[in-house]
Amino acid sequence: MKVYVDNAATTKMSRTAIDSMIPYLESVYGNPSSLYTIGQEAKEALDKARADVASCFNCSEKEIYFTSGGSEADNQAIISAARIGERKGKKHIISTAFEHHAVLHTLKKLEKEGFEIELLPVGEKGNVTEEQVEKAIKDDTCLVTIMYANNEIGSIMPIREIGAVCRKHNVIFHTDSVQAAGHVKIDVKEQNIDMLSISAHKFHGPKGVGALYVRKGIPVSNIIEGGAQERGKRGGTENVAGIVSMAAALKEAVAHIDENAAKMTEIRDRIISGLSEIPHSALNGDRENRLPNNINFCFEGIEGESLLLLLDAKGISASSGSACTSGSLDPSHVLLAIGRPHEVAHGSLRISLCEWNTMEEAEYIISEVPKVVEYLRNMSPMWKDLTSGKRQFIL
Ligand SMILES: *Cc1c(COP(=O)(O)O)cnc(C)c1O
Fold it and tell me: Which of 11, 199, 352 to mutate to test the pocket of ligand 1 (most atoms within 8 A of CB)?
């Protein structure tokens, strides 16, 4: 059986997303900046895609900027807010310890430029509160950047409340919504969001295309200099086919958001209850307040990497955490942030679903994972120490 359950890393493109891009590869290949017909047809497609994306978040098309993906959108949002702050002498930025590296590494860069970066601690269930944010805001705070939902443990932040606190103190609020867009309902007005990043390949669209929403009135700085594309805020000939496809994928996801969530939640809950039976294991993140597609466990006494390889041999594609940390020996910064000790954080497994996964696949996962965990534990010197009492169990 082949089971793909790493949808937080990337998703398979939908039929709609593939079909929608073909005309823009095959026949309407003009440059949207060109004045002749096939250029203008491409421009019309871009305009329509922009309006479609805007309608999914309840904003205006003038507030949408297309980018090369979620990472670029995060970079542009944070750099833009930092430049606005700098001009006013405000150089304090608030974020959290468990953001995606696209956010954390951008903040590191700003720290070297003299910005003061404050990373809020994350609760053991993977949450930050609006009270924490309000307490951290100072006179010179120029930006709060907090993810909508965590990509490893699926916990969802109180976005509307955090947004309200930021509005009250006149601080720009950016949210990396890459894991949330197309999966949970987002309304930038109702939720007091000033800037929001999305990425097409996390909701069955193509890789290498994303968007940044910036509320009207907030100046945007370029990170890619070039022509006058994206109203002068992002140089480079537009990825027309990719953008059209992203809009189609997003519209489709948003149209089916409730039924998809219901379906995935049922499968998610079945897997969580099945894997909870493994002794000395623990679910990471909040049991209730989590993305409908996310399951993340720690199994004491094993290495996540070997677990993944053995699961791959059984046809199961899963992850130990973020795609970016896989391949390195450091445990996930997210699991450390929620207080998992190193030795436990190493034995993590993330299963992330899409609406095409089935209950039959869930049963296969529930039957295979415990066998693999037991096999690895039987070979593990750490497990021997734990069972002989030489070392104390943590979980
Ligand atoms: C995938 C992801 C990104 C990066 O998006 P890309 O389009 O791959 O650059 C950023 N933030 C989060 C939370 C993600 O899951």
Answer: 199
Please name the residue whose Cα sits nearest to atom 3 of ligand 1.
70
User: Would residue 59 show up in a list of annotated catalytic residues for this protein?
Assistant: no
Task: Let me know if residue 394 belongs to a domain.
Answer: no
Domain end: 255, 276, 305, which one? 255
Quick: pLDDT tens for 69-121.
999 999 999 999 999 999 999 999 999 999 999 999 999 999 999 999 999 99
Identify the domain boundary among 205, 234, 255: 255
For the stretch 277-314, pLDDT in tens is: 999 999 999 999 999 999 999 999 998 889 999 999 99
Residues 369 and 323 in one domain: yes
CA of 194 to the centre of ligand 1 (A): 19
pTM above 0.85, yes or no: yes
Question: What is the distance between the alpha carbons of residues 82 and 195, in angstroms, rounded to a whole number?
Answer: 13
Q: Are 268 and 244 members of one domain?
A: no
Q: Is the pLDDT of residue 326 over 70?
A: no
Residue range of the domain that includes 152: 15-255
Helix residue ranges, H only, the chain: 15-26, 37-57, 70-87, 101-112, 130-136, 159-168, 240-255, 257-275, 304-313, 333-337, 342-345, 359-379, 381-387
Write down the catalytic residue from 142, 166, 298, 324.
324
Ligand 1 midpoint to CA 176 (Å)? 8
Q: What is the CATH number of the domain that holds 229?
A: 3.40.640.10
Return the residue matching tokens 């496809």.
245
